[in-house]
Amino acid sequence: MTAVQFIPGSSVAEYLSLVRRKNPLIHCVTNEVVQEITANVLLAAGASPAMVVGEGEAEDFVGICDGLSINVGTPFSMRVQIMKAAARKARELGKPWILDPVAAGALVWRDKIIFELMRTGPDVIRGNASEIKFLAGQGSGGKGVDSMDSSDSALQAAVELAEHYSSIVVVTGRTDYITDGTTTYSAEGGNPLITKVVGTGCSLSTLIAAFISSTDSKLEAAAACCAYVKKASEKAASDSKGPGSFHAAYLDALYNLKPEDFNA
């Protein structure tokens, strides 16, 4: 039985303060569907986004950025080569990077890409329950990009995956679990409306990149990021009437939440 501890509000306040003070530059190699919301989420939280995806510059930009986020949502051959080169460069330079294995288990070619990237050594792997269970060899994946499993059912898979790849694994759902295979945090709350807006999960991965790029305490920082997003989604849901207004309210909530809001 995996022991789980809540990430305290004081830690959320601490790591959010670090992000806003350091304004980390995050290199986003992400899919075309979510680029706009990803950039806006980073800006609202206090980080700085860069969508540098050209084959002649993406690898070099790793040397400039503070952290790298790789999302395999819409892969094509040239973009895959860029992802691999950027991941290798991040590992070479000691830059923190996160992998979002979108739709793992759905297609053989996609899965091959994901496993190759995982062997490059991401600091964090962030996925939904079905993706994480598949990557740990405990499931067949979800329904496209949607999870068919609860995060509770993926907790042990997350722990084993973290141990195998020496990475932090974040499995998101009704409860988010954040583990390095030894220590496991949880973040609860949030609102289901966040699942009705495209890109909220992908942008969470990139936001985790900003949090882990601001400190050496990457496990706590990743957990703090999840708790921050949970609270923002609660605030956004209370201020919106549906997915359309939630989109704007979510960005506003990320921007307006202050570190002291978590110390309470």
Describe, in plain words, how this protein is organized in 3D.
By secondary structure, this protein is an alpha/beta fold. It has one domain: 3-Layer(aba) Sandwich (UDP-N-acetylmuramoyl-L-alanine:D-glutamate ligase). It has eleven helices and nine strands. It has helices spanning 9-22, 35-45, 58-61, 77-93, 108-118, 129-135, 155-165, 200-212, 218-238, 243-256, 260-263; strands at 5-6, 25-29, 48-50, 67-71, 97-100, 124-128, 168-172, 176-179, 184-187. Strands 1-9-8-7-6-5-4-2-3 form a nine-stranded mixed beta sheet, sandwiched between helices. Strand 5, helix 5 (108-118) and strand 6 form a beta-alpha-beta unit. It is globular and about 45 Å long.
Tags for this model:
264 residues, alpha/beta, UDP-N-acetylmuramoyl-L-alanine:D-glutamate ligase, 9-stranded mixed sheet, 9 strands, 48% helix, EC 2.7.1.50, Hydroxyethylthiazole kinase, Ribokinase-like, ATP binding, thiamine biosynthesis
* Fraction of residues in β-strands: 5-15%
- Gross CATH architecture: 3-Layer(aba) Sandwich
The major sheet is characterized as: 9 strands, mixed
Identify low-pLDDT runs.
none
Mean pLDDT: 95
CATH class: Alpha Beta
Strand order of the largest sheet: 1-9-8-7-6-5-4-2-3
Residues in helix, %: 40-55%
Quickly count the helices: 11
Question: Outline of this structure?
Answer:
With 264 residues, this protein is α/β, with parallel strands linked by helices. The chain has eleven helices and nine strands.
